[in-house]
Design a protein that fits this description.
The chain is α+β, with helices and mostly antiparallel strands and 500 residues long. It is built from 14 helices and 16 strands. It starts with 9 loop residues before the first strand and ends in a 23-residue tail after the last helix.
């Protein structure tokens, strides 16, 4: 944001104010002067519009992950020229540079990364609201605690705090500790949930009643110094590494991870084995003082000084979410576990492309990604109201808002500049795709169902959150408040290589 008397460019007025237009979202998300006047049908206090469709966000996500225009085009099923035009259109729609593009490359700016994250949260909120409001799944989530105290042995949990607040409407109070202390916190009723790893059934020694939700089975690899004699080969047998100097963490039941892995393979534990905490272990690995085990869920060392190799024995551990079922609703715990698994898989693909060249790891990743997609999908309902695979996009929200505002298909069709029959068919196709009834039809006409109106009421809060994210991006991209829409890309803050 600018300071003093300087004026920050205003964000475009509400999505509701453009619902009388045939376009699905505003053609310009910002104005260099002042906000455009609201239309006569704009509701007071209606939040900012959403300038991205789901395909737009998929493109930004692809750019953030790979940084190559041709690869981004391949991932999104587009042509190279079309990708560049779409990225340029998004810059103009938002009024900020979301990507920095070269001849063949592109990367997200700080604003692009922030708006990508905000866009993901927006659509996750929409999907969850469809699930709860329109389909009525997970009503127990109403009784969820306002703040969930959770102990975690994985620093990565911090990366999902904002998504949990947006998608699950739950605030996480995270306490980081060793796996042993995490379980002690849970056993002592200091927290109501724990996120940790284990080699056996998690929580079996707890007297407190808990329910376990699997997050990810965690295959282990070995981290070797770049110049190690086995660094250039394929899968490495544990027997060839027994005489090496190892570093290992301690698990929740006092087990030493490396020692247990060797024991499971029928081998004695390495003679030179340093047992320490996770942060010290990572430092030793980076310096080449020892070798150790890595996995998709732990903060593995990523540096030119180390390489990652598969192990012939394919050892693994389990990462789980443990909750007190009397405090944490099952639907909430299930969604939080799915959210964690999704983030783990994205981070693994982004940070360890070398392992994805290994056929075993590539198969494992494809299977887990497909499983996560199925798990994150809507829960099945009765056959007569089976939930479909269609997800609401901004143009669908545009149509439903128009019907809600103008009170009938007739009047909504007129302001949307389409015929009544075309609008009726469109909503009917949307109902079939969702597997849900959105309209009440009677001899007196049509109206939105109560559940659809409840969903649209919540939509305003989701848009307001995106509005705040857009304003914070404007503060990043325009630190001097000059009133210009675009900043010299060379002056932009350097974004992370991937928004995932």
């Amino acid at each position: 944001m600018s300071s003093g008397s300087e004026t920050t460019p205003a964000v475009h007025p509400a999505l509701a104010s453009v619902l009388d237009r045939p376009t699905p979202f505003p053609s310009s998300f910002s104005s260099a002067a002042a906000p455009a006047p609201a239309s006569p049908t704009t509701l007071p206090g209606t939040p900012a519009g959403f300038p991205f469709t789901r395909p737009d966000l998929s493109l930004l996500d692809a750019v953030g992950q790979c940084g190559d225009l041709a690869e981004a085009a391949r991932r999104t099923g587009s042509r190279g020229g079309a990708v560049e035009r779409q990225l340029e259109r998004l810059d103009k729609a938002v009024g900020l540079p979301l990507t920095l593009r070269g001849r063949h490359t592109a990367r997200l700016t700080s604003a692009g990364s922030r708006l990508l994250a905000a866009g993901r949260r927006f659509f996750r909120q929409v999907d969850l609201a469809v699930r709860t409001d329109i389909f009525g799944h997970g009503p127990e989530a109403v009784d969820a605690p306002a703040v969930l105290a959770i102990a975690s042995a994985e620093p990565f949990l911090e990366d999902v705090v904002e998504d949990a607040a947006a998608a699950l409407d739950i605030l996480l109070s995270v306490h980081h500790d060793t796996p042993q202390q995490v379980m002690r916190r849970l056993a002592g009723y200091h927290v109501d949930a724990a996120h940790t790893w284990s080699l056996d059934a998690p929580g079996r020694s707890l007297e407190r009643p808990v329910r376990t939700y699997p997050v990810l089975d965690d295959p282990l690899w070995v981290t070797l110094p770049q110049g190690h004699r086995l660094a250039g080969g394929g899968a490495v047998p544990l027997a060839d590494l027994r005489d090496e100097t190892w570093v290992s963490e301690v698990g929740p039941d006092s087990e030493v991870l490396v020692a247990r892995v060797f024991q499971a393979a029928g081998l004695p534990a390495p003679a030179a084995l340093h047992v320490t905490g996770a942060s010290v272990a990572r430092g030793m690995l980076r310096r080449g003082d020892a070798i150790g085990l890595g996995s998709p869920t732990r903060p593995a060392v990523v540096a030119p000084s180390v390489v990652h190799r598969s192990l012939v024995e394919r050892p693994h551990r389990s990462t789980s979410l443990l909750v007190d079922p009397t405090v944490v609703p099952g639907a909430l715990a299930e969604h939080l576990a799915e959210l964690l698994a999704d983030r783990y898989l994205h981070r693994f693909a982004d940070r360890h492309p070398d392992l994805l060249t290994d056929p075993w790891w590539a198969r494992w990743y494809r299977a887990r990604t497909a499983g996560a997609a199925r798990a994150a999908g809507p829960a099945p309902t009765a056959p007569d109201t089976a939930q479909g695979t269609r997800k609401l996009d901004v143009d669908d929200l545009h149509v439903l808002r128009a019907v809600a505002r103008h009170g009938s298909i007739n009047r909504a069709a007129a302001v949307l500049s389409i015929s009544q029959s075309a609008l009726t068919r469109r909503i009917h196709r949307l109902e079939l795709g969702l597997g849900a009834q959105l309209l009440l039809r009677s001899a007196r006409g049509t109206d939105l169902t109560g559940s659809t109106r409840s969903f649209l009421h919540r939509l305003g809060r989701f848009e307001a959150e995106f509005h705040e994210a857009a304003q914070s991006c404007r503060g990043l991209a325009l630190p001097g408040g000059t009133g210009t829409h675009r900043q010299d890309p060379r002056a932009m803050p350097q974004p992370a290589p991937s928004a995932t």
